[in-house]
Amino acid sequence: MHDLPMTASVVDRDGPSRAEPVRIETLLADPATRVIELQGDRSPLRPDRTLALRSPEPEDTETLLLYLGRLDGIAHVAACRPAPPKGDATREERLDAAPFASLREVAGELPQAQATLFATALGLANWHVRHPRCPRCGERTEVVSSGWVRRCPQDGSEHYPRTDPAVIMAVIDDADRLLLARNIGWPEGRFSVLAGFLEPGETIAGAVIREVGEEVGVSVRDVRFVADQPWPFPASLMLGCTARATTTDLVCQPDEIAEARWFTREEFRHELAEGYLRAAGRLSISSRLIEGWLGQRLDELG
Ligand SMILES: [Zn+2]
Predict the structure, then answer these.
(1) How far is CA 274 from its chain centroid?
(2) Closest CA to 211 of 191, 239, 237, 188
(3) What is the 205 CA–ligand 1 centroid distance (Å)?
(4) Within a domain: residue 169?
(5) 152 lies in a domain?
(6) 192 alpha carbon to ligand 1 midpoint, in Å?
(7) How far is the CA of 158 from the centre of ligand 1 (A)?
(8) CA distance 290 to 14
(9) How far, in Å, from the CA of 292 to the mean position of ligand 1?
(10) Both 100 and 207 in a single domain?
(11) CATH code, domain with 233
(12) Looking at the structure, do residues 230 and 126 belong to the same domain, yes or no?
């Protein structure tokens, strides 16, 4: 899974320097600093479909500023603005119509380091948008530590960015068939592996066993962690696993799963080729879990 988007550990997060006084101000005064703009969940691209990183501009001080760390020794800062009202492309126009793209749209084609920077910026920005107030007293908190902490001016409590772990699992039975399911709300033919959030007090294996049991009524054992992937939509970390089914009868949880099926490799390839089955893109770890079972890349099929 070496090419799984958003998983490259190439950015030095430079955590110890975040809390230095005027850290962000110092970085913004340095033209060598690279700024990644976010407008809502979108960032401008160059014509070659890489991030349009740029030097700091005076009006960056009016945005939410997040110090992301150093890449090849160069400091990178995210400057985050709210998404413009629908139909209002003022800022895009001012940037000579540099196309903006969401992380979902471009994570698979960006250089790995840029996808990681974008994912870090988006995950952190999402947290700020969703956690503006102190969970203890309700006061509006202020951004400190270069964007990595929010502090309450009323009671002094400090609040840190959240990441919500979720398990995602390839369940395989003794006949080597893969379990795929269609969520309610997904179109006909779109199937994927099961996934669900961890609950407090739960282990990864415990969450896999519980989720598979709840969603399709199947018992599993031999849960193995395979790989993980940040998934900042808005704040997840996907923990990719495999598990062996000890039962095969499927009972779908009606408010979550529209249908679930066991696929042989031949059925999977055939239905994909015939268009009955829609393959997911290769952005998410779900595609890699399926490929691990299939023994073949999905983009080499049909
Ligand atoms: Zn407070």
Answers:
(1) 31
(2) 239
(3) 36
(4) yes
(5) no
(6) 42
(7) 9
(8) 35
(9) 47
(10) no
(11) 3.90.79.10
(12) no
Whether residue 58 is found in the same domain as residue 171: no
| Closest to 1 measured CA to CA, from 302, 300, 297 | 297
The domain of 256 spans 164-300
> Do 172 and 274 share a domain, yes or no?
yes
pLDDT in tens, 100-151: 999 999 999 999 999 999 999 999 999 999 999 999 999 999 999 999 999 9
Residues around the ion ligand 1 (C-beta < 5 A): 134, 136-137, 139, 152, 154-155
Ligand 1 centroid – CA 123 distance (Å): 23
Question: Measured in angstroms, how far is the CA atom of residue 133 from the centroid of ligand 1?
Answer: 8
Instruction: Tell me which residue of 217, 117, 112, 207 sits closest to 169, measured CA to CA.
Output: 207
Collect all residues with Cβ–Cβ distance below 8 Å to 299 and sequence separation of at least 6: 282
Measure 202 CA to ligand 1 centroid, in angstroms. 29
Does a structural domain hold residue 6?
no
Task: Supply the CATH number for residue 91's domain.
Answer: 3.90.79
Question: Cα(156) to centroid of ligand 1, in Å?
Answer: 7
**Would you place residue 1 in the very low, low, confident or very high pLDDT band (cuts 50, 70, 90)?**
confident
**Cα 150 to ligand 1 centroid, rounded to whole Å:** 10
Burial of 78 (0-12, 13-18, 19+ CB in 10 A): buried
295 and 209 in a common domain: yes
**Whether 89 and 37 share a structural domain:** yes
Residue-level pLDDT at 88: 65
Rounded to the nearest angstrom, the distance between the alpha carbon of 137 and the centre of ligand 1 is 4
Two tokens at 178? 């893969």
| 260 in the same domain as 169 | yes
Q: Are residues 284 and 171 in the same domain?
A: yes
Distance of CA 153 from the midpoint of ligand 1 (Å): 7
**98 confidence band (pLDDT: 50, 70, 90):** confident
Between the CA of 131 and the centroid of ligand 1 the distance, in Å, is 12
- What confidence tier does 280 reach under pLDDT thresholds 50, 70, 90? confident
pLDDT in tens, 20-30: 989 999 999 99
Q: Count up the domains in the chain and report the number.
A: 2
Asked whether residue 182 is assigned to any structural domain, the reply reads yes
157 CA distance to ligand 1 middle (Å): 6
